Amino acid sequence: MNVQYVPVHCLGILDKVYMEMSKSELLMSVLPPDSFRFRYVAIIRVTYGIMLPIMMIIEMTRMKLDIVRKIGWFAVYTVFLQLALILMFMGFVRYDSLYDGYIWNSTRVYGHSTPDLNHFYPMFQDIHVMIIIGFGFLMTFLKRYGFSAVSLNLLLSSLTLQVAILVDGIARSRGGYIKLNILTLMEAEFACATVLISFGAVLGKVSATQLVLAVLLEVPAWVVNKYVGVEVLGVVDLGGSILVHVFGAYFGLAMSRALSRRVSPMDHDLEASTYYSDIFSMVGTTFLWVFWPSFNAVLGTERGAGRAVINTYLALAAAVVAAFVTSAWKNERNKWEMVHVQNATLAGGVAVGAVADLMLQPWGALILGFLAGLLSTLGYMDLQPLLANRLGLHDSCGVNNLHGMPGLLSGVVSIGMALLASETSYGKDLYTQYPMMAPMGNTSALQELLEEIPDASAGSARTSAQQALCQGLALLLSTLLAGVAGTVTGLLLTCGSTCESPRQDQLFADDPWWEVPDADAVMEGGSNGRDSGKLFSIQIPPRVEGGGRKIIYQSRSVSDSNPPRANSPSAAIMRASRGFPGLRSLNWHYVPSLTDANEGKSGEVSEDGKTRRLIC
User: Fold this and answer.
1) Is 314 in contact with 365 (CB distance < 8 Å)?
2) How far apart are CA 466 and CA 464, in angstroms?
3) Is 177 exposed, middle or buried (0-12, 13-18, 19+ CB in 10 A)?
């Protein structure tokens, strides 16, 4: 027997011993209660399920199996992970009582506690669109990384929701199975948002294999942070500014810094956007902007959710104004920059998250949103370059500016709101907004509160100052735990060749990982085979560089001071442009066809509407 399999066999023996003991009523009578027995079995089987694939991968590495060379480590890790998840779902996860056909008769007689699907599903759909479309397209700004940005976003979301259901379910369970309902799926969506925020910090700098392994390390850390923040500290953070945005941002930044010790991404040629990639990124921005009120309000009470929608809506609107104003103000030519509009316009939704359902007042939401937009834009213009130059901290998407700093701002405002919280502002609703401030159990004060507000529950009788302290501790914990866990994750992902760390020439590019169609083939496909190799488009983007005409032929710039070869298509464009008044002052963008051999043939420019083609 190989040494690396000893821990797995030991766990298997413990599992079998427990199963034999469970057959004896006498032994079961002296063992701990059901909840402890369940946790005992859960720990053994989850550990068994995780360690067995890891040991098998180690064995495959030692034997250097041909299958690894053929399918790659990404497929090996992902297949084993999915198989382990399937096995653990078989052992631990079931439908909630309303959806479980086996206990339907009992449910009809005794009722159920399953959350109402019709109440939550509309907002759940909104959040799902944010996760898949909003985050996915927001990251397509890199000119050569669009395939990976959208597709890896979908892959990470699919893996994260499965891992989160298991890890968070075991942490929250009180014995028995993990019950699936709409709120369970909602918590998994919040875990996806956390992971995708971290993904933004390392966008273009990691392989898919590293991202899959990062999910396994980040989700448990996020669950621990959430458990301590909610169950122990009783933090009020309806929109997840502290537990989702701050944690995800600084986990990703710490991971990015650790990864940079292997390959430096600074000043990479492909870390740039184009006119069209920025438009696709703006599509993601609009989806996030439209649906963000649902993200902040979905878990609130009826009154709290109403305030959350209003406050988020107003904060987002003010952030848009601040982003446009600051972008033009800080630009030397008073022009807007697309990166600010893509990201800083969303900062209001982050900044209002921790206080979305509180008595912030509409004017307070507007002020907070404007400050967040201002802070985020200044972060992109001044702070991000400073961190890169001084600390070597590379942030691909600027998650510190969109999620980190606005999240910290939200946490600070939540401390102030907790200090000001009183029955004067909220009435008895104070104890549903701040559950830990409710009277303790088995007291007359609690009985009086329950008579007036049946939804209230026993708390810890905290004062407003104590609640404010807990808000601050939760913010500090999220920042520190994210930094430590992210650093450890980044260091682990650079150890060993099986993580498939990208080389310098593989950063910010789809080509090393995808079958990327040639640009010429894409154009020819649009012509349905007609005039194949004879037509190529000349498009006119709405900008002029250097005040003059500049013709771009693939990677070679052509201008009056740098004339093209005499018989090239670029020369034909310049010659033909003389026949159209005013055409020489335009800025041409040349997209060639499949037949580069056409160079040397004469051509002419035809004009129909807004499209001009050079026919060779």
Assistant:
1) yes
2) 5
3) middle
Taking the C-alpha atoms of residue 88 and residue 422, their distance in angstroms, rounded to an integer, is: 46
For 476-490, the DSSP string reads HHHHHHHHHHHHHHH
- To 10 degrees, the CA torsion angle through 8, 12, 15, 16? -170
Q: Let me know how many helices (H) and strands (E) the chain has, helices first.
A: 25, 8
Strand partners of residue 611:
608
Q: Is 93 helix (H, G, I), strand (E, B) or coil?
A: strand
Residue with tokens 């005013």: 582
- Tokens 């107003």 locate to 314
Burial class (CB in 10 A: 0-12, 13-18, 19+), 90: exposed
Pairing of strands 611-615, 604-608: antiparallel
What residues contact 470, with CB distance under 8 A and at least 6 apart? 233, 234, 235, 418, 436, 462
C-alpha distances (whole Å) from 438 to each of 367, 444, 447, 464 are 30, 12, 11, 11
Query: Is residue 8 within 8 Å of 55, Cβ to Cβ?
Result: yes
Q: Domain limits of the chain?
A: 3-105, 119-420+463-503, 519-615
Identify whether the C-beta of residue 349 lies closer than 8 Å to the C-beta of residue 135: no
Please determine, for residue 481, whether its predicted confidence score (pLDDT) is greater than 70: yes
Q: Are 467 and 410 in contact (CB under 8 A)?
A: no
Contact predicate 497/74, CB 8 Å = no
Residues in the chain: 616
Residue 45 one-letter amino acid: R
Q: How far apart are CA 58 and CA 4, in angstroms?
A: 8
In angstroms, the CA 205 to CA 199 distance is 10
Half-sphere exposure of 114 (CA within 13 A, CB side): 22
547 in Cβ contact with 560 (< 8 Å): no
Q: What is the pTM of this model?
A: 0.77
Compute the distance between CA of residue 474 and CA of residue 466 in angstroms, rounded to an integer. Answer: 12
Distance CA 179, CA 341 (A): 41
Q: Look at residue 51 in the predicted model and tell me its pLDDT.
A: 58
Tokens of 421: 């919280």
Give mean pLDDT, residues 56-67.
56
**Cα 510 to Cα 222, 269, 600, distances in angstroms:** 29, 14, 32
Nearest residue to 342 (alpha-carbon basis) of 134, 129, 127: 134
Parallel, antiparallel or unpaired: strands 535-539 and 589-590: antiparallel
pLDDT of residue 468: 95
Give exposure, 135-162, as e/b (b: 16+ Cβ within 10 Å). bbbbbbbbbbbbbbbbebbeebbebbbb
Please name which of 126, 129, 118 lies closest in space to residue 309, comparing C-alpha atoms: 126
pLDDT band at 456 (very low <50, low <70, confident <90, very high): confident
- Helices 302-330, 362-378: axis angle to 10 degrees equals 40
**3-class secondary structure per residue, 507-537:** CCCCCCCCCCCCHHHHHHHCCCCCCCCCEEE
What CATH number is given for 119-420+463-503 in this structure?
Answer: 1.10.3430.10
Do strands 556-558 and 611-615 pair parallel, antiparallel, or not at all (unpaired)?
A: unpaired
Does 347 have pLDDT greater than 90? yes
What strand order describes the sheet that includes 604-608? Answer: 556-558, 551-553, 589-590, 535-539, 611-615, 604-608
